[in-house]
Amino acid sequence: MKVMAFVGSPRRNGNTDRIVRAICKGARESGHEVDLYHLAEMNNKGCIACDACQLAKVDFCSIDDELTTLMPKIAKADCLIVGTPIYMLQVSGVTKHFLDRLRPFLKPDLTAKHLPGKKYITVTCSGAPATAFSHVTEYLNQFFGYFRMESAGHIVAGSLHERDDIIRQSDILEEAEDMGKKIN
Ligand SMILES: Cc1cc2nc3c(=O)[nH]c(=O)nc-3n(C[C@H](O)[C@H](O)[C@H](O)COP(=O)(O)O)c2cc1C
């Protein structure tokens, strides 16, 4: 299977990055082809509401950036992994930009194209205890449900302040690796 993983934290080797990479490690061990992207380091602009994707003026998106070049690959992927830190009670800004930019995968009648039936995994990391932000996982489930994608698991991690705090929650990293191994 082709797996594409997106990290929505600007912190390389931060908590979100480490959990997403643990999922990727497990997925590679199961023989999947995995590509990892750091959204904050990409030329990844916000949706400009030009509606070109809805008016079928373009294959995917009119914005000339790295994310648009990835869209055909997203269309062919079997599983998307999206990891985000909690910023001001929600997904991070770059993560939200990424989610907004998936509008080309919705038809004007709001039915989905390319993505239905594919798998997704979400990861959230917060400073507050994990239980504080289950609503963000619910939001992401609602989001991917809109595209008729199927959950292959989620990680909700909390009490993470310093970049490497997750190292002291080895059970979560093990759970993540296991989740990656089980993608099918
Ligand atoms: C701009 C900003 C806003 C944040 N907002 C919240 C918040 O609303 N609630 C919370 O629990 N943690 C918040 N945090 C803490 C991060 O969610 C937490 O440290 C997370 O583990 C960072 O993930 P990372 O290591 O992958 O960057 C915030 C951090 C930043 C930089």
Structural overview:
It is a single chain. Strands 1, 2, 3, 4, 5 and 6 form a 6-stranded mixed β-sheet that branches. Helix content is 32%, strand content 21%. The chain has a single domain, classed as Rossmann fold, CATH 3.40.50.360. It has 5 helices and 6 strands. α1 links the parallel β1 and β2. By secondary structure, the protein is an alpha/beta fold. It starts with a strand and ends with a helix. The structure holds flavin mononucleotide. The site of flavin mononucleotide has 18 residues, from α1 and β3. GO terms for molecular function: oxidoreductase activity.
CATH superfamily: Flavodoxin domain
Low-pLDDT parts are none
Count of helix runs: 5
Arithmetic mean of pLDDT: 97
The total strand number stands at 6
**CATH class category name:** Alpha Beta
CATH architecture descriptor name: 3-Layer(aba) Sandwich
* Main sheet properties: 6 strands, mixed
| Shape verdict | globular
Keywords:
184 residues; alpha/beta; Rossmann fold; six-stranded mixed β-sheet; 5 helices; 32% helix; binds flavin mononucleotide
